UniProtKB/TrEMBL annotation:
PANTHER family from the UniProt entry: BYPASS OF STOP CODON PROTEIN 6, INNER MEMBRANE PROTEIN YBJJ
Transmembrane segments: 22-41, 53-75, 82-100, 106-131, 143-163, 169-187, 208-231, 243-263, 275-294, 300-321, 333-354, 360-381
Keywords: Membrane, Transmembrane, Transmembrane helix
Gene Ontology MF, one: transmembrane transporter activity
Domain Major facilitator superfamily (MFS) profile, chain residue ranges per copy: 208-383
Membrane topology of this protein: Multi-pass membrane protein
Name used for this protein in its record: MFS transporter
Organism this protein belongs to: Pseudomonas karstica
One GO cellular component, as annotated: membrane
InterPro entries for the chain: MFS, MFS_dom, MFS_trans_sf, MFS_Transporter
Subcellular location(s) per record: Membrane
Length: 383
């Protein structure tokens, strides 16, 4: 494979903006398509909560390993090639996750799935930064809104197909076809180069960057908990049929999508500090509503509040990273991204361990306390 020089790249325009939005949609759709499959995989492999939590470490590990590697590869070979390769991995892993029952094969499938998601997420965020900078406009919330829209379509769509009686494999193959069609539309205008910034793929954050990274960790931890455990919680604790258990993540993704698509206006009106304080409070309240009150309808409302609360916290934190002077931006951003996504690695596993030793409800209450800490931290962080 021939390396592509990042020198003198073509300035991104409208078509590149379109491809960025589609790529974010693919990332959100791909990860959300897994949510309704979790209870089926758990039952098929005869897993308890603790074992499932350990297996989900493979998904997070794949993402964490792939992110810095994808950034380095994108600088050498271009965003288009690396994002396409990551999408292909997602398409290969999803049918495996819908069918395999042995623990070793599930580990491999989850690792490949996580690696594909990590590669796509890393490269499309890099493209988003380049495209937004070239446009001279604030576009990041809109890009991330397409990720959330993909989450709605992925979770609700696969849940609907399962509800109509399709097998997990058939429903997943429909999802793969949608991802492939979206990739064919986006790929021609994904950037054939990467970032022009030099520096290590990963650096240990310190100072205010470490503080921001810890807040990102908690928010991503909450998002990962909803992704990987909401369906299990709704089916096991609230008695909702497994075919519809993915609606929990769909409710979360719906309000997160609305919040992000309107995020720029919200931040301008409320200010970044209030967005963090109010958002963290709403998300914590949503988790408590879901876990402490009975009824699956109440749980769906709680997940919706979590999505609304979390929607604009991370974009605001990325803006704060751009303002700090402790670390260079091109090093600080990958550092907090990796630390943030470590929440997705640790969160689902932590939920599984706590649920195995105590209860799934107790695990979610702990998440609520951490989100309350984010709300308090909003007043400390100067943004």
């Amino acid at each position: 494979m021939t390396a592509i020089s990042p020198q003198a790249p073509v300035v991104p325009g409208r078509l590149e903006q379109m491809s960025t939005r589609i790529a974010f949609f693919i990332a959100g759709f791909g990860i959300a398509a897994w949510a309704p499959l979790v209870p089926y995989a758990k039952a098929r492999a005869l897993l308890d909560e603790g074992t499932l939590g350990l297996l989900l470490l493979c998904l997070g590990a794949g993402s964490i390993i792939a992110m810095p590697a994808a950034g380095a590869l994108a600088s050498r070979y271009g965003i288009r090639r690396v994002a396409t390769a990551g999408t292909v991995l997602i398409c290969l892993a999803l049918p495996l996750l819908a069918t395999v029952s042995s623990i070793p094969l599930l580990m491999v499938a989850l690792f490949l799935f996580g690696a594909g998601l990590g590669a796509v997420d890393s490269t499309i965020n890099l493209q988003a930064v380049i495209v937004e900078r070239a446009s001279g406009k604030t576009m990041m919330s809109g890009f991330h809104g397409l990720f959330s829209l993909g989450g709605i379509v992925g979770a609700a769509g696969v849940s609907a197909l399962l509800g109509l009686g399709l097998s997990p494999l058939a429903a997943t193959l429909v999802a793969v076809v949608i991802v492939v069609l979206a990739l064919l539309k986006a790929a021609p205008h994904l950037l054939p180069y990467g970032s022009e910034s030099s520096g290590p793929a990963f650096a240990i954050p310190h100072g205010v960057v470490l503080f921001i990274g810890c807040l990102c960790f908690v928010v991503f931890l909450a998002e990962g908990a909803v992704l990987d455990w909401s369906a299990v919680f709704l089916s096991a604790e609230r008695g909702l049929d497994e075919a519809y258990a993915g609606l929990g993540y769909a409710a979360f993704a719906l309000t997160m999508t609305v919040g992000r698509l309107t995020g720029d206006a919200i931040v301008r009106r409320l200010g970044a500090t209030r967005v963090i304080v109010i958002g963290g409070t709403l998300a914590a309240a949503g988790i408590l509503l879901t876990t402490l009150l009975s009824g699956w309808e109440t749980a769906l409302l709680g997940y919706a509040l979590v999505g609304a609360g979390c929607s604009n916290i991370v974009p605001v934190l990325y803006t704060a990273v751009g303002k700090q002077k402790v670390m260079p931006e091109h090093i600080a951003v990958p550092a907090i991204t990796t630390l943030g996504y470590a929440g997705i690695l640790a969160g689902p596993a932590m939920i599984g361990f706590i649920a195995h030793g105590s209860s799934l409800s107790m695990a979610f209450v702990l998440i609520a306390l951490l989100l309350a800490g984010v709300a308090i931290s909003g007043k400390i962080l100067k943004v």
